[in-house]
Design goal:
The chain is of the alpha+beta class. 15% of the residues lie in helices and 43% in strands. The longest helix is centred in the N-terminal third of the chain and has 22 residues. It is elongated and about 110 Å long. The protein binds zinc ion.
Length: 454
């Protein structure tokens, strides 16, 4: 009898011990990846729950506001608009829409997302539970955008500027040209020719119609807040087609033998195989595209204010134009057409080693070797407007330097893919290469930029 009691005690203790130990087993882990801070009219919710083999005994997602809880998802119950999919062996990925559209009772103000998940342990006798919460702000005020400036004329491959209002003040906004976004920047504080802009909701956006976009591409203002609320507005704009020249470039072995090994020595981005022509084609295609992507990436580093003082960009008029913007080039080797590319800049030649000056006041973002562009300088003029100087024989500035209009940046040369000593010059608007000629024209600067700021 004593023995039996002892045995029962041991079994009970062991079971109790197992029960307690099981309670300390790893609970499911919950990650609320979206929303981060704001919930709006329609905001994506993204939750990842992981447990061994993704075995859960219960899972609930709720939105709590003013003491009320609104169910968003319940395992085993009506899933509503939630989508659940496995991610690997141990994870479940739950997505749905959370916002006014999904929860009509939702009001502006604070709210909390609560996720509860439990998994079975000890053969299902016990469950271990985890709870994760995310405090959010419900924002239901729709962003608004409205145009302030008038007469927006855009040439194919050219630039334009708009002044508009965006409210509330902390939203993202800009111009959408087809599917390309051009961010707007606060205009308040900007002083152009002695005129100071005070309206805190006023924005300035420089935008462009890419040389290869249709002239009928829709152009409109956009705004969106962090809660996912968005707005669009049309404004008066006219686009004009522009014929681009066609040119033929004869490639000879002397040129290929000079530029191909030099460019490949300076880059690790492409490693083409084959003869010199095959390597040239890889440089002219693949490396050109990669270099273009790198150049476009500098748009992110632009200053939010205009760094130039409203004066025309230095027009390099003492030089001969060898090639204009968006020339359609056919490359010919031994009588055969071997490649086609668009030349997105101006080629300007005077004499070898000409001092190359900053087109306007700005900040040096890049001053180094860059593939087909050879020794290259990129200047930021603020609000997405940038200028590029390529094929230099030497560079006299470094990234981070502020330069004044017409300050020397280096000397012209023939580094990179250059047939002879010349400056390859282009302007960029939010990473898109645009026709620089417009920026050289006092009349254009006056009409497109300065007039709208008054
Ligand atoms: Zn060029």
């Amino acid at each position: 009898m004593r023995f039996l009691l002892g045995l029962i005690l041991i079994v009970v203790l062991a079971a109790g011990g197992a029960y307690v130990v099981a309670g300390h087993s790893v609970a499911p882990s919950i990650t609320i990846s979206k929303p981060e801070k704001f919930v709006g009219a329609s905001t994506p919710l993204e939750v990842v729950v992981s447990a061994p083999e993704a075995r859960l005994s219960a899972m609930r997602i709720e939105l709590e506001q003013n003491g009320k809880r609104f169910p968003l998802y319940a395992m085993g119950g009506e899933t509503g608009k939630a989508e659940v999919r496995p991610e690997g062996a141990d994870k479940l990925h739950i997505t749905r829409d959370v916002g006014k559209a999904a929860v009509p009772e939702l009001e502006a103000g604070s709210a909390r997302i609560i996720v509860t998940a439990s998994r079975p342990v000890l053969y299902g006798i016990r469950n271990v539970e985890s709870i994760a919460t995310r405090d959010v702000t419900v924002r239901l005020e729709r962003p608004r955008v409205s145009v302030m400036s008038t007469h927006h004329y855009i040439n194919l491959g050219g630039s334009e500027m708009i002044v508009y209002r965006a409210t509330p003040a902390d939203i993202e906004s800009g111009v959408l040209v087809g599917d390309i976004e051009y961010p707007g920047y606060p205009a308040a504080g900007a002083t152009v020719e002695g005129v100071k802009i005070n309206d805190p909701s006023a924005r300035i956006a420089f935008f462009a119609l890419r040389y290869d976009q249709d002239v009928n591409t829709p152009i409109r203002l956009f705004a969106r807040d962090e809660a996912g609320n968005s707005a669009r507005a049309d404004f008066d704009s006219r686009t004009f087609p522009k014929p681009f020249k066609k040119s033929r470039i004869a490639l000879d072995d002397r040129f290929l033998e000079r530029v191909v090994p030099a460019i490949l020595d300076g880059t690790t981005e492409v490693r083409p195989e084959g003869d010199t022509l095959a390597k040239f084609l890889a440089i002219n295609g693949d490396l050109r595209r990669r270099n273009g992507d790198k150049i476009a990436s500098f748009a992110k580093q632009t200053a939010p204010e205009m760094l130039w003082r409203g004066a025309v960009f230095h027009p390099f008029t003492n030089t001969a134009v060898e090639s204009a913007f968006a020339d359609q080039r056919t490359y010919v080797y031994k009588g055969k057409d071997v490649d086609r590319q668009t030349h997105l800049g101006f080629d300007l030649a005077s004499f070898a080693g000409t001092p190359i000056v900053a087109a306007n006041r700005g900040k040096v973002l890049f001053a180094d070797e860059l593939g087909i562009y050879g020794n290259c300088v990129i200047l930021d003029h603020g609000m997405g407007v940038q200028s590029l100087y390529a094929h230099l024989s030497s560079i006299g500035v470094k990234a981070g330097d502020m330069v004044q209009k017409e300050q020397e940046l280096g000397k012209s040369g023939m580094t990179g893919m250059a047939g002879g000593d010349h400056l390859h010059y282009t302007m960029l608007v939010s990473g898109q290469m645009v026709n620089p000629v417009e920026w050289w024209d006092q009349h254009w600067i006056e009409d497109r930029v300065l007039r709208k700021l008054r």
